């Protein structure tokens, strides 16, 4: 068998699923160094996104997570966790194959109940990173109720992954009186406070689906109880909030981009029959779109025929929440994508050493 160059080997391996790549790391030290290198990880991720492969849907239900491959969505696979959690558990957002989860530890507080912890988790590799606790600066106005929401995105400017935490403080009448925002940096493994947005989040939901380095939510301008809904964007690179132009109609569950390009429209009679629909992913041929119907079941929408069909899933009787993610090798060591050239040079050096030995 002829000796192939490292570039050819990397090109072939970058087309394989994550499960196969994890097994192939045992072939040699060279292959392990190649597959673990940031350059290969980024190349594999980009190729998966461009070719619409390695796409899966993560389903949250009663303290468990299931994974569904879009190409074989009829079978659910239970995701096992390398960390222990107590009672309640929920996943909040996804980005580049990483999942932001929120769980309760076994340690309890006599006044507030179980201590809740955030963690970033890659279900494909089993690696995870527990986030440090974020302090809260309560307003000086008497007893308040605190509500928090989360977003997750990649910061391309600083080559970092950021977790956004938005807190709302409400008085005894459940009226929003103040808010604050914190951002977690994976690189520094720490939280920092940023200027909060003057938008109330009536639905208490930050859309987990992020576009590039921007996450979106539906809110109302100011802390008005009732008001016109607006779409609020948080850009991870600049750590700033802004209001983006909305389309003719604004619903709670929408998929958006910064230019509001209309990719497809779902109208009557489908909307009339299902009411609340959340788009998750395209099929491999991009002829159908997988939709989440009211967090109860999954359906396929045919873009040409304008028709729907159920997508029954074995091993998953019902759904609580669902988000799409790309299976990836993205690590959680805090080194992002900046060291691509350096790591690639190390792999090439390793290849030269192996050639000399042969």
From TrEMBL:
Originating species: Escallonia rubra
SMART domains the record matches: FBOX
Matching Gene3D superfamilies: 1.20.1280.50
Residues of the F-box domain: 1-49
InterPro entries tied to this protein: F-box-assoc_dom_typ3, F-box-assoc_interact_dom, F-box-like_dom_sf, F-box_dom, SCF_F-box_component
Top-level taxon of origin: Eukaryota
The protein, known as: F-box domain-containing protein
């Amino acid at each position: 068998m002829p000796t192939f160059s490292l570039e050819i080997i990397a090109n072939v391996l970058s087309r394989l699923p994550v499960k196969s790549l994890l097994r192939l790391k045992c072939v040699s030290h060279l292959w392990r160094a190649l597959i673990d290198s940031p350059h290969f990880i980024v190349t594999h991720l980009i190729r998966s996104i461009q070719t619409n492969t390695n796409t899966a849907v993560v389903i949250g239900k009663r303290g468990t997570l299931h994974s569904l491959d879009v190409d074989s969505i009829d079978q659910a696979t239970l995701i096992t966790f390398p960390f222990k959690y107590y009672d309640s558990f929920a996943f909040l957002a996804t980005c580049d194959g990483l999942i932001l989860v929120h769980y309760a530890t076994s340690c309890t507080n006599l006044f507030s109940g179980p201590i809740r912890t955030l963690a970033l988790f890659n279900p494909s590799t089993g690696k995870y990173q527990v986030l440090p606790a974020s302090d809260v600066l309560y307003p000086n106005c008497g007893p308040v109720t605190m509500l928090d929401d989360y977003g997750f995105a990649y910061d391309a400017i600083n080559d970092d992954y950021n977790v956004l935490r938005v807190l709302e403080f409400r008085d005894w009448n459940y009226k929003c009186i103040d808010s604050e925002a914190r951002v977690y940096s994976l690189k520094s493994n720490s939280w920092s406070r940023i200027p909060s947005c003057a938008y109330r989040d009536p639905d208490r939901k930050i859309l987990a689906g992020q576009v590039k380095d921007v996450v979106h939510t539906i809110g109302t301008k100011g802390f008005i109880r009732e008001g016109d809904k607006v779409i609020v964007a948080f850009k991870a690179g600049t750590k700033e909030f802004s209001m983006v132009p909305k389309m003719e109609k604004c619903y709670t569950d929408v998929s958006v981009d910064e230019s509001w390009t209309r990719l497809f429209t779902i109208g009557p009679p489908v909307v009339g029959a299902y009411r609340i629909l959340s788009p998750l992913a395209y099929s491999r041929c991009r002829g159908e779109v997988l939709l989440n119907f009211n967090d109860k079941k999954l359906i396929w929408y045919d873009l040409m025929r304008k028709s729907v069909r159920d997508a029954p899933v074995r091993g998953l009787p019902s759904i609580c929440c669902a988000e799409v993610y790309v299976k990836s090798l993205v690590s959680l060591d805090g080194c992002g994508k900046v060291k691509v050239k350096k790591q690639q040079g190390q792999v090439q050096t390793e290849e030269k050493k192996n050639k000399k030995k042969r």
